[in-house]
## 1
Amino acid sequence: MRVGRLTVSDRASAGLYEDRSGPEIERIVRQSLQLTCEFLTAVVPDDVDRIRTRIQTWADQDGCDLILTTGGTGITPRDVTPEATRPLLEKELPGFGEAMRLHSLPRVPTAILSRATAGIRGRCLIINLPGKPSAIAECLDILRMAILEALAHLRGLDPHDTRPAT
Ligand SMILES: Nc1ncnc2c1ncn2[C@@H]1O[C@H](COP(=O)(O)OP(=O)(O)OP(=O)(O)O)[C@@H](O)[C@H]1O
Ligand SMILES: Nc1nc2c(c(=O)[nH]1)N[C@H]1C(S)=C(S)[C@@H](COP(=O)(O)O)O[C@H]1N2
């Protein structure tokens, strides 16, 4: 299983603070999703072309099964991750963003400020996550079963096969 994790942050990419969200994605994927996987990693500024090129390369050329982005899903002019992601999707999966926002809402009333989306490109599942490190676990927790089911479908495996994805 090959997973791309992309941190989208002007400040982290400029070295103004250490990216903690990217490593948090890796921790959660390994522990919570229990996926044995190889990670491709990158930190880019909030730039549509940089985000889109990275996602497209990982999905089309590098054989990623799953791409998780973090950051840039908000409402400021520099928050462009959904705009960069959506045109790449062959099938959008709006339920992923809806689930993240609804699940987070009771504890984080500002969760609905995230415009995160998700979808399929080829055999790759692409999901936007909010940028805050604390948001990673909150959001991936509610998406866990849907991610595993989607990965099984995309890899042509019997989605009801309980064997862990290799
Ligand atoms: N990748 C990250 N690593 C560490 N802290 C982060 C990260 N992303 C966000 N944060 C924290 O959450 C706060 C709010 O995140 P915010 O959405 O403003 O950042 P961002 O838009 O993702 O990054 P930037 O503003 O640099 O483009 C940040 O001020 C920072 O403290
Ligand atoms: N679970 C969770 N969702 C969250 C948050 C959070 O802290 N936890 N932050 C909210 C806030 S304050 C914003 S501005 C939006 C967008 O954040 P981003 O621009 O870093 O993607 O995510 C929202 N969703």
Note: The first strand starts at residue 2 and ends at 8.
## 2
Amino acid sequence: MHVTEPSVDEYIDLNASEEDAILQELDRETHLKVALPNMISGHVQGLYLTSLTRMLRPMRILEIGTFTGYSGICLAKGLPEGGKITCLEINDELEEIIDKYFTKAGLRDKLDLRFGNAMEIIPTLEDTYDMIFIDADKRNYIHYYDLVFDKVRKGGYIIADNVLWKGKVADPTKNDKDTVAIREYNEKVKQDPRVENFILPLRDGLLIAEKK
Ligand SMILES: C[S@@+](CC[C@H](N)C(=O)[O-])C[C@H]1O[C@@H](n2cnc3c(N)ncnc32)[C@H](O)[C@@H]1O
């Protein structure tokens, strides 16, 4: 799910720091045991998420769509002492693998893992977040944005993954439901005067919105 040329992707990958051993193992286990393993954030995007949290030092992160925990671990690696990540995932069959790798990474105490439909869980959350990572079902991105907005502090970030959808969002002849939903999400955020935003063309595109 990359938008850059495969050879450029390979070059980017080769010139990044090596993926840490636990994340390599998680990636392998995800590919061996879980359906749709390509949903995983992966090496370079993972490094980016970690460096972002090391730079911004968020105390509270909310991840919507955890899958096997790869992006959650990458985000949690940058949490300062006392920081927490709340991870929402609808598929409770993934609990064992998420739990195993957060524990191996020494980050289990930073994880608040909740299973269920994020649309129903988010309204029950009482924390204020410094960072939200939206990476669940694409057709609900707009709803997730609306649900989390008031829970993000001023100066906090709402980051959404896959906003280029393999480049299909920029092709007016592509109008399947997911492409249309992501296009609408990108347009909504662009029109929202409460945020400053841009799309980072990393892997499948990250929309980064800072709440003013
Ligand atoms: C693209 S994957 C997440 C990948 C993960 N963030 C990573 O980078 O490794 C999307 C995940 O969202 C979950 N999901 C889909 N709809 C959801 C919902 N309504 N509530 C919570 N999780 C949901 C799916 O089960 C899937 O595991």
Note: The radius of gyration is 16 Å.
## 3
Amino acid sequence: DMLTATPKTTEGPFYPDKLPLDTDNDLLILNNSITPAVGEITYLTGRVLSPSGEPLRNAFVEIWQCDHQGAYLHSGTDNDSSRDKNFQGYGRFLTDSKGQYCFRTIKPVPYPGRTPHIHFGVSRHGQRVLTTQLFVKGHPQNERDGILKAIRDQKALDNIMGDFQPLPGSRIGELAVNFDIVLGMTPNDPDDDGAKGIGKSERESGMGMGRGPRGPRGPGENGPPPSSPRPEIPPGN
Ligand SMILES: O=C(O)c1ccc(O)c(O)c1
């Protein structure tokens, strides 16, 4: 049996034109800063699945979104001066053997003309295979969003509605949302190419949860953000 494929949407104008030096899966802390981004802390988890529901390992998941005041990490914005300099704005992660990814970010807020959303790009074998957006289930502005209105299939729509809920046990009002991404059919799809197509230095910098010395901890583990330094791409490399 085939699952309903996650619908694709436009990439939008603000995929970062210059990636931040820190591209890990914790969008709340830049490099070794002790000051987190402003916003509602959200643990964003999910799996990348094949059309038949098999977990896909080594899928390259990128997310990007505007900060708590609607500023994207992009040179084409008109609100860069008010941008939250502590918000990473972009993050990426390679799925594990269960197809799982995780990010720590903020709950998305409206952008002028758009209902709240988080942009996603999923790549395999060095090629983008899905561009989509995750929305906030029940948000009143969803009804007036042109990109959402273009998706006519109710099942497909349900697939991109994130149910942002209080993180159980959190004393500081953190949220959690799960978003499983189902890819459409692709011809001749080996299940693992060892992340081929992702640049070596980038891969080495992709210190995700469970693979490196830091990155967000899993849901339920609160406390101050980790402060130990982690490997980064050295300037000039
Ligand atoms: O079409 C737009 O203006 C627009 C703005 C922001 C977005 O995130 C987006 O996807 C589209």
Note: The two ends are 46 Å apart (CA to CA).
## 4
Amino acid sequence: MADRFYELHVAGVTRKLPILNVNDKLAIAGFVILGDVELVEKAAAALVKRVPPETEIMVTAETKGIPLVHEMARLMGMPRYAIARKSVKAYMENPIIVEDRSITTKGKQILVLQDEDIALVRGRKVLLVDDVISTGGSIKALEELIEKAGGTVIGRMAILAEGDAMNRKDIVTLENLPLFDAQV
Ligand SMILES: Nc1ncnc2[nH]cnc12
């Protein structure tokens, strides 16, 4: 159990986030939207107001971006969105794969786009959606994946900008989330 917490105010909701070490120097306030209906709905409603009008398709990477992009698509009346997966499944034909590194996962990960989703993004203007943008590694990998698939990234959106991402001008976010020193 964490003994430090960060009180986050975003999109009209307040959540007490546990501060947990990710290595011996760095700690993060864990922000998990999975299962939190109120937070997902309110954050999606706030982000939808700032979606670039030229957006043709939204894309997220599994896992935590999925409920958010689903609710955004629902509010916008968009019948489809695409999900970059973290592993190749038996039902994927000719998937496109890129490497990804994230602050919350040790070692390398991959991002995979399956054929139906490749067809959805090819030749289209793509908005990337995620729960948190932190080191930027995941959003960069997602961007690389979309470009490989023949899509054009026209925007990047997340609920929170964490750490250095707070200074980025190329992302739209609702609030900032600080990083913390590890406590040993
Ligand atoms: N603070 C955080 N909580 C949960 N997932 C994250 N991914 C990047 N930063 C995160």
Note: The chain has one domain: 35-176.
